[in-house]
Amino acid sequence: MRRMSEPVPDPREAAFLFDLIRTRYGNRLTAEQLEAVRRGVAAIVAQSAALRAVRLVNADEPVQRFTPLRADP
Amino acid sequence: MNPIFRSVRELSEAIRRREVSPVALAETFLDRLERLGPRYNAVVTITRERGLAAARRAEAEVAAGRWRGPLHGIPYGAKDLLAAVGAPTTWGAAPLRRQVFDFDATVIQRLDAAGAVLVAKLAMVELAGGMGYRQPNASFTGPGKSPWGDDAWSGGSSSGSGSAVSAGLVPFAIGSETWGSILSPAAYCGVTGLRPTYGRVSRHGAMALCWTLDKLGPLALTADDCGLVLEAIAGPDAHDATAADRTFTHDGGDVTTRRFRFGMLRDVAAGAEPAVAAAFARSLDTLAKLGTVEEVTLPELPYDAIARTILFAEAASAFEDMIESGELAELTAPEDHYTAYARDAILAKDYIKALRLRGVVMREADRVLARFDALVGPGRPATAPPLAAEFRSPHRPALDPMGAIGNMAGLPAVAVPNGFSESGLPTSLQFMGRAWADDTVLAAARAWQGITDWHLRHPAIG
Question: Which one of A4, B123, B135, B288 is separated from B82 by 20 to 30 angstroms, measured CA to CA?
Fold first, then answer.
């Protein structure tokens, strides 16, 4: 049975990920835009924490169609 | 016969009986698109030459007794994310305003084959809203306006599809939904919108925002019309592996004696705007005339977080070039210039976790829906917001469990008008069903429209 724990976003994770994004794109963003991106990263980290708080079993596969391809018959 | 605000079914009968000329019909709607389209920022390109050529072809065929079916000679508009020969396909984005394709999207091809007449490429939110817009001014054609208010947004991202049908500029339109982009404009513009089951309609030739969430579907004046259009555009397609090997036949038969089993998620209208909540409460009384309504619950799961993770991750990949190049800065909405950068913070394992959780949600939703013909709820939790208003917070997104579940599980839903606010803005009711139960949700919506007249009320256009 799946169980949920209380999602707890880690502020250090948000800080690390924001640093990565600032390194990649910071030169094209204003201080105000960067601050908005920082808040956006925090929201995504909270969103990810909500996913991680749900326990799945090993057999819970991703819903993703994959079919091996062979062009000739 | 005045063709404005007539259903596709009515227009079709008139064409078949040769009481209405397809060429005259096309001219009428082309004139309205030219004259009234700018009022609502509803149109990107009017396809006059292509439309008149198709109308003349339809007229000759009908005169020769070769009636192709209910869409023969019916004008329509397509959201400007569908490729069409002879017109730009801008995706609503300023940097792409000269983008052209040398082929027709499968949906356009199928509507051509059904004899429908493309008269306009309709306005949309830039990149179907995938870059995180939070206010209506997010298209190079300006904010879409609902015909029901001077300062009311049309909804998005199928903005022009909603407002053009509502204002009588086209009898039907094609929109797309990744999460809310058909149901929202249907609700804010007071028309009927169908989000088909994922895979029901080929997306070949449509802009990809999110490969596992994108759907194409019709907006029209009635649920019956939506069924007629779906029958024409549904089916397998060698160009789109996700298009299921299933055809769709619209059952437009009598539903007056049919009894429906409706489910309603607990607290589904909690947090809705008072006018929406009041209209939904009244709708429950009306629905009781059509069948039973039973409250249900779903397991506690982070529905919004799952859907949002899938959407953000896939959209970041779909528009990687635009994001990496900095071309985002040329978009219209200021927040679209930077919001997508934060999506680099989505880790691969979290995206995969969202896809695993999606399976859980699909099973749980189907388990609940198996007992019902449809779940009911407000089409949107609010009426159309003002044009200058932020309608969502970037950090505290409004929860939309039916939208999150329905879209991530690929379930069909139809939104129908169910009332008005005190300020005269439309409210909406949605019916959401099991996968591939498109005809069941349409039947429920047709039954609703058989005992209500909200869909027969139209804005004062002049």
Answer: B135
Q: What are the average pLDDT values for consecutive 10-residue runs of chain B, which has 462 residues?
A: 97 98 98 98 98 98 98 98 98 98 98 98 98 97 97 97 98 98 98 98 98 98 98 97 95 95 96 95 98 96 96 98 96 98 98 97 96 98 95 69 96 98 98 98 98 98 80
Q: What is the ipTM of this complex?
A: 0.94
Yes or no, beta carbons of A37 and B339 under 8 Å apart:
yes
Task: Please enumerate in sequence order all residues whose Cβ is within 8 A of that of B104, keeping only pairs 6 or more positions apart, or say none.
Answer: B83, B84, B85, B112, B205
Q: Which of B250, B230, B241, B158 is nearest to B199 (CA)?
A: B241
A7 token code pair: 């999602």
- At B96, give phi and psi (nearest 5°): -115, 20
Instruction: Assess B399–A contact: CB distance below 8 Å, yes or no.
Output: no
Please report the beta strands in B252-306, taking only residues with DSSP state E, as ranges in sequence order. Answer: 260-265, 291-296
Residues 2 through 61 of chain A touching chain B, CB cutoff 8 Å: 2, 4, 7, 14, 17-18, 20-21, 24-25, 28-29, 33, 36-37, 39-45, 47-48, 50-54, 56, 60-61
Q: Which of A37, A41, A52 to mutate to test the interface with B (most CBs of B within 10 A)?
A: A37
Task: Give the separation between CA B30 and CA B28, rounded to whole angstroms.
Answer: 6
Taking alpha carbons only, the member of B219, B223, B209 closest to residue B77 is B219
